[in-house]
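Supplementary material to the annual report.
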Amino acid sequence: MKPLEGLLILEFSQFMAAPTAGLRLADLGARVIKIERPVKGEAGRQIAIRNIFVDGSSLVFHTINRNKESYAADLKNPEDLERIKKLIRQADVITHNFRPGVMEKIGLDYASVKAINPRIVYCVVTGYGNKGPWALRPGQDLLIQSLSGLAYLSDTNDAGPVPFGLATADMICGAHFVQGILAALIKRAKTNQGVLVEVSLLESTLDLQFEVITTYLNDGGKLPQRSSLKGNGHAYLSAPYGIYQTKDNYLSLAMGDLNKIGKTIGADLSGYTEKTSWFDNRDEIMALLADQIKQKTTAQWLGILETAGIWCSEVLTYEQALQHEGIKVMGMQQQVTLPGGGSLSTTRCPIRINGQKLYSNVAAPQLGAQTEIINHQFNLL
Amino acid sequence: MKPLEDYLVVDFSQFLSGPSASLKLADLGARVIKIEKPGTGDICRHLYTSNVILNGESSVFHAINRNKESFAADIKNEGDKKLIWELVKKADVVMHNFRPGVMERLGFDYASVRALNPSVIYGEISGYGDEGPWKDKPGQDLLLQSLSGLTWLNGNAGGPTPMGLSIIDMLAGNHLAQGILACLLRKTISGEGALVQVSMLESALDFQFEAITTYYYDGKLPQRSEKNNAHAYLGAPYGIYQTANGFMALAMGSIPQLGMLLGCDGLLTYTDVAQAFHQRDEIKAILAAHLQSNTTEHWLVILQAADIWCAEVMNWDTLMQHDGFKVLDMIQEVQMADGFKYRTTRNPIRMDGELFTSAKGSPKLGQDNQKIINEIKS
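Predicted assembly:
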C-alpha cells in the first residue's frame, strides 16, 4: 500500500511547479484531480517543447500530468462553482498557482474555502511571494533564475550569465511544495484544523543556493568567481573539480587530494603543495591537468584513476546513459497507456517505499475525462 | 506549532544530500541529532569552499547543519553503540547516506532497527541504488551530472557544461525529505513504519524527466543553441542577452511581435511560428546584436508594458539591495553555542502565514553529548 492512499487532492494549478508536486503526491498514492476550464483546459496542454503533441496535448503536459484525473469546470459559472465547492468539502488538499488576487475574485481564497471545509490544506505557489514590488510579475523559470543570481554559477567568467538548462526553479519549488503539503497534513492530523501552505519560485531558488549564499553572506560579500576554463564544475570548489577533454571524449574529475591526482595523471603540481593554492591557483592547475588529460582516451584514464581510488567518471549523453546497465538496472523507465490506445515511455517516481519502486501506467487525462464519474461519485449534481 | 515538533530524527548522514534533508525536517520542527565520528565528525566540517573558514569550520557545514544537535559517538565501540541504540529505539526517523552494505556491517540497517523500533521511518540515500555495475561508485555530484546526461543541457553548443551547484545532492535530499514526510504522515495516522530509499541517480533522472521523456519519444539528443542558450528544447527568444549596460532574460514572445516592439526590422520576416525553433540561432544572433544598442531598463519598460516575460539579470549584490528580495525576509542570523553568529538563508516554506525561522546555529562536534547521555540515563 502506498503511503498517501485515501487522500484527495484538487489541483487548480497550471504549468510546471505545482503540477510536478501533484504528480509526486499521485505517485505516492494520493488521488489527484485536475480542475480545468472547459474547452482549453490547463494552459500547459498547449506549451510544447520541440513542438511535440500527443492526442492534442503537449508531450510535456503528458510528462507532468500522468496518474491524475481531469474535471472540467468553469469557475466563473455559478453552477460549476457550486459543484466545485461540493467537491472541496470532500477534499483534503487544494493547490493553485494563480497570481495574487485571482482566487479572491472567484471566491475560492483560503478564508472562503476554510469556511466550506475547516480541515482543508490550502496550498499556493507564487513567483515572488504575495507582497512587494515583484508580487505581480510573471513567475517564469528563466526570469526567476535571472533575478536570483543562479545564472552566475555555471560555465566560465567570460560566458556572462549562464542559466541552468532545465526548468530548475520550477522543479525545486515543486519539490518544496510537496514537503510543505505533507508537513501541513501532519499538522492537520494533530490539530484537526486546516492549514495554509505557501511557497514561491524565488524563495525556493534562493534555498537551492543556500550553501553558496551562506558563504557570500559571511566572506565579506565576494561574488562567485567562476574559472576561466571551460568545463569548470563549481565556482567555489578547488581544482581539479570539472570536466576535461580527453583524446577521444571527456572526463569528469571531482574533489580529492590534488597531490595524488597530479602524480597519477602525470602533471607537475610541485608548485601547489599548499592546500589553499588549490583554490587560489585553480585555473593554472586545471590547465596543467588538461594538458595531460588530452593525451589519453577516457577509457585509459578511467582505468588509471579508478584503480587509484580517484573520483572520476566518463561523461555520457542520453543515448549512452539510458542504454547503460548502470541506469537500466534502476528500472526508471515506465510505460503509460494512452486513453485512445498506444503508449508513451516516461520516467517513474524517484522514491522507493519498502523496497518497492512506484510505477503507474495511468496516462495524463483528456480534458474533463472524469467529469461525469466524479459528479456521480461525489454527488455533485 | 511546527508540524514535526515532537519527532526525533537520528541522522547518520554526512556531506550534503542527507544533511540537507534533515535540515528541512529540523526547520519543520523535528529534533535532529547528528551522530558523528569522534575526532573528525561529519567530513563536511572541513570541506571548504573558496577557502572560507567560519569559526574553525567550513561555511558550507554551517549552512547545512544549523538547527541540529551533535552526538559524537564511535559506532564501532560497544559502549557508544549502546548509547546510539537508545536513541535509535525512540527515534521516529533514522537516516543515513552510507554506501550499500555499510549499515549492515555496522548493525544499524533497516531490518535490525525495525526489530527494536517497528514504527520507525528509515531513510537512506545512495549514489546509484544497491544493484548494478555502478553501485560501489562514489555518489558525488559532478559524477552524477556527468553520467546522467545533464551536462549536455547547459551553456552553449559545444562541450559538456556542468550546472554550477551540487544540484543532484540537493534534489536527492529533497526527494528523501518528501518520502520521509509521506511515511511520517501515515505513521502519524496509523503507526505504520516504512523504509524510504532514494538515490542520486534516480533523482538526477527525475530532474530531467521532461527531456528524457522527449528523448524516449523522438530519439533525438538535446541540441543547445550556438549562443544565448537557456534551454536546449526551446526556440528563440528564450535566453539571456547582453544589453548596453548589463544583461536581460527574455522568455517568450512571437518573433515578429518582438521585432515590432523592439524596433528590430530583422525579426519581422520570421512570421512562421516553427522558425522560432528551427532558425533560432540566426534569430538569436539578430536579437543579441540589437539588444546591445540600448539599456536593460529601456527594453524592459517596452516589453513589460506588452506583457512579454522578461527580467533583468542580477547578481547577489544587486538582488539583496532590491525591495523584491528584502520583502521575503529570506536571511536569518543564527548563533552557535559558543556565541559565534552567522547569517544564512531560512527554510523556503511558509505555513499559516508564518516563516520557519530558527536562531540555532550549527553544533560543535559532540556539543550535545552530555545532555543526550543524561536524557538516556534518566
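Chain B has a mean pLDDT of 97.
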